[in-house]
From TrEMBL:
Record GO biological process: siderophore transmembrane transport
Location relative to the cell: Cell outer membrane
Protein name per UniProt: Outer membrane protein beta-barrel domain-containing protein
Keyword Signal: yes
Pfam families listed in its UniProt record: OMP_b-brl_3 (PF14905)
Coiled coil: none
InterPro entries tied to this protein: Beta-barrel_TonB_sf, OMP_b-brl_3, TonB-dep_rcpt-like
PANTHER family per UniProt: HEMOGLOBIN AND HEMOGLOBIN-HAPTOGLOBIN-BINDING PROTEIN 1-RELATED, TONB-DEPENDENT OUTER MEMBRANE RECEPTOR
Species assigned in the record: Chryseobacterium populi
Membrane topology of the entry: Multi-pass membrane protein
GO molecular function, one term: siderophore uptake transmembrane transporter activity
Entry annotated with the keyword Membrane: yes
Length: 729
């Protein structure tokens, strides 16, 4: 218990020190008047980090800049997270990015930090944002310039963990009068290695499996953004994004024991390809000089994943026989979407936004499984299915924002969504679901005085199942240990509340409470077939509800004339998960088989603790060498599937700037402590333990070259009509 107390003591001692020496406020002298520039502040429904006034925003890229932004963390150098949120959704200039996670990562790492004006962190997004559950939003605001010309970036990088993984990318931006074009391309080759240790059982038997997964990947992707300014009021834009990933000869090799006796060895060979293409056409009309505008979008998304595998079980003991089966698990997703938004601003400070959107999605999942019998493969009708899923979502939303006086402002909104979906497992079963959701939103902000402000936010959201979760197919670790997707899973309803307090634009506190109805998670269900064969089936299903209370304390501050920049945060949480799963909705009766499922009980009440410490130190006075020293610690945390063990990571980085060249060396998780370890025990004594070690220590060497006019304006970023769908592929 000493660690939380020590962190809290550091937090409040820093708060006292800030009253003596407030380095966070930049001072500029203009005609005898001192103007204080606020680097980090709370405004309306968001936290704003003024990158242009930050000493760490020189000679780096946008992703590295986000890592140093208050309330944002990156544990592995690949993903971003807002503390206390499910996921992060990236917006640029108020428009959601139109690319998948890998392409987005490449874009962020290739965009120079000098192009960024500010970063907005929206912990509870308003009704106009297309987000789900308790997702947070990061909005990147680019600098504006009307200069004609071109610029670009070339980047090469190599990450070394268990394997060496090279990659590279390029961007090219062009502007000439009314035309603006941005293009990007990235390519990579990486091989992932994971080591597993799995065990489950009860007082009558014990299963244990250990082994590794070797997954080679080759990928390339890119984007084209074209913006044409027809005149001062009308603009037309087009966006295209694509990504291709190939993973051939991925091998999962697992040795299995039962009651301490070696039984068999399972080897799974898998070949997979993923193709993703998306298009968006945008038209914008400015209706007055106050910022009012009408925006419309038409979008199309095509996603195709082909996966084939051969699973073989080799006997070790005389009690087992050789067995094998083949799987083909393709998925095709087609999405058509459109939306219209009208933003109205008045001279008296009133802001209205009214919008409507429509999404139609069709997924085709034709799964086939063949089992080896008498030296030939024959179809297994129980695991072969053709699943067609269709979904239509019609949404209407409205928000109203107003500043009542110099101290009080607010934002009120609501979003109404009508969802109609049908699922058909051809020749077997099907379902129809129609449901409507009214999702209110409220935000109130009160400025107590120059140094203190407080706000309250309420939001309601829905989390629909990801499309891959609905596809009724299995992924096997062993013949009796596998994951099972669930086409019958229901959408979950989220209610989010938050109180935020900020002191002197450097110290902040967030108190949040989230309630989830019809909550879902991937749960380990155990059972028997004919009283003999025991199985462990991981299935994502609804179980009940959960409640989470969290307190985040943070500090963003510079010291010693901007030589040392700190970004510290602590999160204390209390979670309650409750529910019971007594049946498997995907289970289909098989003649001659009797399946008995052990009830899975969720009754979790626990405290959890997380802290993050980021330091950037400017070494010489000419600002061309920087040292990064970062650390995070996540204490034990009980979730629906069990108790997660301690995770921590100590990272170092050194950056050298030489004109247009930037050289960066990074070391992540130097002590190899950032891996997954889960222990789950049920009231009846059954247990399920998982250790997944992904070789988290990574050494990364990268070089970036920027060329051309670095003050060139980016194209107008456009919101895609199918933004909410992309996150579910």
């Amino acid at each position: 218990m000493k660690t939380p107390i020590l962190i809290a003591a550091l937090f409040f001692s820093g708060l006292i020190y800030s009253q003596q020496k407030p380095d966070t406020l930049k001072t500029k002298t203009l005609e005898g008047i001192n103007l204080k520039k606020q680097v980090f502040k709370k405004q309306s429904d968001r936290f704003i980090y003024d990158v242009a006034s930050s000493p760490i925003a020189k000679g780096t890229n946008t992703f590295s800049l986000l890592q140093q932004t208050p309330m944002i963390s990156s544990i592995d150098g690949k993903t971003l997270k807002i503390m206390g949120k499910s996921e992060v959704v990236i917006y640029i200039n108020g428009k959601k990015t139109n690319m998948d996670s890998e392409a987005l990562l490449a874009m962020l790492k290739s965009t120079p930090s000098e192009d960024i004006q500010k970063i907005e962190v929206i912990t509870v997004p308003g009704s106009e944002f297309q987000v789900e559950s308790n997702d947070g939003v990061i909005n990147i605001v680019m600098k504006k310039s009307k200069n004609n010309g071109y610029n670009g970036t070339l980047k090469a990088q190599n990450e070394m963990s268990y394997y060496s993984n090279p990659g590279g990318g390029a961007t090219f931006n062009f502007k000439q009068n009314k035309w603006s074009v941005n293009t990007s391309f990235n390519v990579g080759s990486w091989r992932e290695r994971e080591r597993y240790n799995l065990s489950n059982g009860d007082n009558t038997f014990k299963n244990k499996s250990f082994g590794s997964n070797d997954d080679p990947n080759k990928t390339y992707g890119g984007s084209v953004n074209i913006d044409y300014e027809i005149n001062k009021k009308h603009s037309l834009g087009f966006t295209y994004n694509m990504r291709y990933n190939k993973s051939f000869n991925s091998i999962l090799d697992v040795t299995n024991l039962e009651d301490g006796v070696l039984r068999n060895r399972t080897v799974n060979h898998e070949d997979a390809q993923t193709r993703n293409h998306s298009f968006n056409l945008n038209y914008e009309i400015k209706t007055d000089t106050l910022g009012s505008k009408l925006t419309s979008n038409v979008s199309y998304l095509w996603f195709n994943r082909d996966k084939v595998s051969l699973n073989q079980t080799f006997p070790i003991s005389n009690a087992d026989e050789y067995g094998a089966f083949q799987q083909s698990v393709p998925q095709i997703i087609n999405n058509y979407a459109a939306n219209i938004d009208y933003l109205k601003k008045t001279a008296k400070g009133h802001t209205w936004l009214v919008g409507v959107s429509y999404n139609h999605t069709n997924t085709d999942n034709d799964t086939r499984q063949d089992v080896l019998k008498d030296e030939s493969f024959v179809n297994d009708p129980n695991q072969t299915n053709h699943f067609i899923y269709k979904e239509n979502i019609l949404a209407a939303y409205i928000t109203y924002e107003r500043k009542f006086n110099e101290k009080l402002s607010g934002k009120l909104g609501t979003r109404f969504e009508m969802t109609k979906s049908t699922g058909d497992i051809i020749g077997k079963t099907g379902f129809d679901r129609d449901y409507n959701n009214l999702l209110p939103y409220l935000n109130l902000n009160y400025t107590i005085n120059e140094n203190n402000s407080i706000s309250y936010t309420f939001s309601s959201r829905v989390r629909r199942p990801r499309f891959w979760e609905l596809n009724p197919s299995r992924t096997y670790f062993t013949p009796t240990n596998y994951t099972q997707n669930n086409p019958f899973i229901l959408a979950s309803k989220f209610y989010n509340q938050e109180i935020s307090y900020m002191f002197k634009n450097a110290f902040y506190a967030n108190l949040s409470f989230n309630y989830v109805d019809d909550a879902s998670s991937q749960l380990p269900l155990q059972g028997t077939i004919n009283g003999d064969t025991k199985f462990l089936r991981y299935i994502r299903t609804n179980y009940g509800n959960n409640k989470q209370l969290g307190l985040t304390l943070g500090m963003n501050k510079t010291w010693f004339k901007e030589i040392w920049t700190t970004n510290y945060s602590v999160n204390l949480g209390y979670a309650i998960y409750s529910g019971t799963v007594t049946e498997d909705p995907t289970s289909v009766p098989v003649p001659g088989q009797v399946e008995v499922l052990s009830p899975y009980v969720i009754d979790v009440k626990n405290f959890n603790f997380f802290t993050q410490i980021n330091n950037t130190i400017r070494l010489p006075s000419k600002k061309d060498w920087f040292l990064g020293v970062n650390y995070f610690f996540a204490g034990k945390n009980a979730i629906e599937s069990g108790e997660m063990g301690v995770r921590q990571s100590f990272d170092l980085s050194v950056k050298k700037i030489m004109g247009n060249w930037t050289f960066l060396a990074e070391a992540y998780d130097i002590f190899n402590q950032n891996y997954t370890k889960i222990k789950g025990v049920q009231p009846d004594g059954s247990y399920n333990n998982i250790t997944e070690f992904g070789y988290p220590r990574i050494i990364s060497i990268g070089v970036t070259y920027n060329f051309g006019n670095q003050k060139l304006k980016k194209t107008r970023e456009m919101k895609s009509a199918n933004d909410a769908i992309k996150s579910r592929t």
